[in-house]
Design brief:
about 625 residues, mainly beta, 2 helices, about 45% strand, disordered N terminus
């Protein structure tokens, strides 16, 4: 099982790498994207995440960036420099893969390139992302492939198809569809990643045996393979395949690179693949020769660049090197890889966690309640018997000279100590930084922390000097320009943390964060959305409204009914519904007269999707309680 999971994980990583920043021709004079102010704030935040190397979900950043923050609430895509890549003409735009993105209009899928040119107009009821130069599409309930130019590479006459090489494809004659609403089908399989399936979608999966076909659709190998999985992570045209005699590695011509004689095979990483023989696990090389004899009860796949991998013997896990020798004897209930290179290991015994470094040295034996975190400065933070603890890089406990550590414990500090019912901030050696004791003390967010006496709060700098004296009834840091939300008596607003001056001049009845760079504020009983500088993105309006502004169209109440407004507050779809949901992949299910019907971003019915007697998403638009502090 471990090998199966490892194989699938490797393909997910490989698929994620297709989401790349494809450079546009410098000679092209592109207009700036006409994003509304809120759309620009959301875009700038995404660029900032991309500059940190993540899209917010741990994956590589992808540009052009899909956005729906345009005046009409339709979706397009924006280049990193803020110029328009894909015009705002669609109900939904996916992230780019291999320079192509799925788009959706009126429930049908098509494709565009990074210049916004239509590769295939929206026409397919089911469509996959591009992978290995092809995308699977559905026509009349059968699967085929199109190439990067939108041309038919394989006629749609199969149950399911997956690219193998430019000229050879895996195919099945059958498919099955899960329960759900007709018209919401999505391809679903564990070989090539497809993220973002809508909550009410019906999964379409392959059934029957796999065969190999050429571009003409002729069978090179008739359906005879029970299962297929990726093999070579370096991209060589080889795949794992299982027949009745076992797993092997198949070539595009149907011949066997490695004969199908193994109970199981994993993916090839750094020249090694896990292999199961006679109910025991070992490792083979690319040619199928045994590199580590099958002598283990289970193994994990080697990870690229890692010197060791977990192996199990007699019910216990240890670590073996690439020759199969034990570097950590099998003595733990579990061992798992932690983080990224340099690799380290989480060890577990009796539901307690410990830590091995990249050389398999025990830094911390299994003492912690949860998997421990190792900081950039080498420190280890976690909890032992529900009490926060800090260890140095050698695993030695760092104890406070006075009081006890208080949650949350961060890597860099200052740390919070609880001393005789009060709080103090401590330096790296856990010595109190001042004699001052606080009734309330919060963690540092960036370089600021909320602290106070009695029922008054202020803002501390990391040297424990006051950025804002403790005179406020509530305060919440975190806006990107260093400003903070605050309340004093009946006044709510935004304060400049560097000066303590109010940025917002008018007093609001309430204010709260809706995301790190935006706040909801109430004025005269009406609610609106502010940016970090205190400017209205959506001016105060009557009635409830959604706060998922990244959707581009936000549910908004008016006259007892619901409609949808853009991220500037303009009603784009009139208020005529009893209840809304959110837009998912360009579709919104709305209720009218106890019937739930799908609409697109123009407020029109979706062709081929039928109304339902109940909310198909099972997650109606809820009530957001806007509160600031205690």
């Amino acid at each position: 099982m471990a090998a199966v999971i490892a194989a699938l994980a490797l393909v997910t990583v490989a698929s994620a790498s297709h989401a790349q920043d494809v450079s546009r021709p410098e000679s092209v004079d592109r207009p700036s994207a006409l994003l509304l102010p809120a759309g620009k704030v959301i875009f700038d935040a995404a660029v900032a995440r991309a500059n940190r190397g993540t899209n917010g979900f741990g994956l590589p950043p992808s540009f052009p960036l899909p956005s729906c923050g345009f005046p009409d609430g339709l979706c397009g895509a924006v280049n990193r420099d803020g110029t328009l890549a894909v015009p705002a003409e669609y109900d939904w735009v996916d992230t780019f893969h291999e320079g192509r993105a799925l788009v959706r209009s009126n429930g049908r899928y098509g494709y565009v390139d990074t210049s916004g040119h239509v590769i295939a107009k929206p026409q397919y009821p089911i469509a996959d992302r591009f992978s290995h130069g092809f995308a699977q599409i559905d026509v009349g309930g059968r699967s085929g492939l199109i190439d990067l130019d939108g041309n038919t590479a394989l006629e749609p006459k199969f149950g399911y198809v997956i690219p193998f090489t430019e000229k050879v494809f895996f195919a099945t004659e059958g498919r099955t569809t899960s329960g759900g609403i007709a018209g919401t089908e999505q391809f679903s399989h564990g070989i090539f990643e497809f993220v973002g399936a809508i909550a009410d979608s019906r999964a379409v999966t392959a059934t029957g045996k796999w065969g190999l076909v050429d571009r003409s659709g002729a069978w090179l190998v008739p359906p005879s393979l029970n299962a297929i999985l990726p093999f070579d992570t370096e991209g060589t045209a080889l795949m794992l395949a299982r027949v009745d005699s076992g797993w092997g590695v198949i070539r595009p011509d149907g011949s066997w690179e490695i004969e199908p004689k193994f109970q199981y095979l994993g993916s090839l990483v750094d020249g090694m693949a896990s292999a199961k023989v006679d109910d025991h696990w070992g490792f083979i090389d690319r040619a199928g020769r045994l590199k580590i004899e099958p002598k283990f009860e289970n193994v994990h796949q080697f990870v690229h660049g890692a010197k060791f991998t977990p192996a199990r013997l007699n019910g216990r896990w240890g670590l073996v090197d690439r020759t199969g020798e034990w570097v950590v004897q099998p003595q733990y209930e579990n061992i798992s890889l932690k983080g990224t290179a340099p690799w380290s290991w989480d060890i577990q015994n009796e539901k307690k966690h410990g830590y091995l470094d990249e050389n398999a040295k025990v830094i911390v034996p299994p003492l912690f309640d949860f998997s421990v975190g190792r900081c950039a400065n080498g420190r280890i933070v976690g909890e032992i018997d529900r009490q926060p603890r800090i260890l140095d890089e050698n695993g030695k406990s760092i104890e406070p000279q006075e009081g006890e550590l208080s949650r949350p414990v961060t890597c860099d500090g200052p740390y919070i100590l609880k001393i005789s019912g009060k709080f103090a901030y401590a330096a790296a050696d856990l010595m109190p930084m001042t004699a001052q004791r606080f009734d309330r003390a919060g963690p540092f967010v960036g370089s600021l922390a909320v602290a106070g006496f009695g029922d008054k709060f202020g803002l501390l700098r990391t040297d424990i000097s006051w950025a804002i004296e403790p005179t406020l009834d509530a305060i919440s840091p975190g806006l990107p320009n260093g400003s903070v939300l605050a309340r004093l008596d009946d006044r709510n607003g935004i304060i400049d943390a560097s000066t303590g001056a109010w940025i917002t001049k008018q007093p609001f009845e309430r204010i709260c964060h809706i995301r790190p760079d935006m706040a909801m504020a109430f004025e005269g009983g009406k609610r609106g959305i502010l940016d970090a500088h205190g400017s209205w993105l959506i001016k105060p309006r009557e009635g409830r409204m959604g706060i998922r502004l990244e959707d581009g169209l936000v549910p908004a109440q008016s006259g007892g009914h619901w409609g949808f407004m853009n991220v500037e507050g303009k009603m784009v779809i009139e208020a005529r519904f009893d209840a809304p949901t959110f837009f998912d992949r360009g579709i919104n299910w709305t209720s009218t007269d106890a019937s739930w019907c799908p609409i697109d971003r123009r407020g029109q019915p979706i062709e081929g999707l039928q109304c339902q007697p109940s909310d198909p998403l099972k997650r109606q638009f809820g009530v957001f309680a806007c509160q600031l502090g205690p």
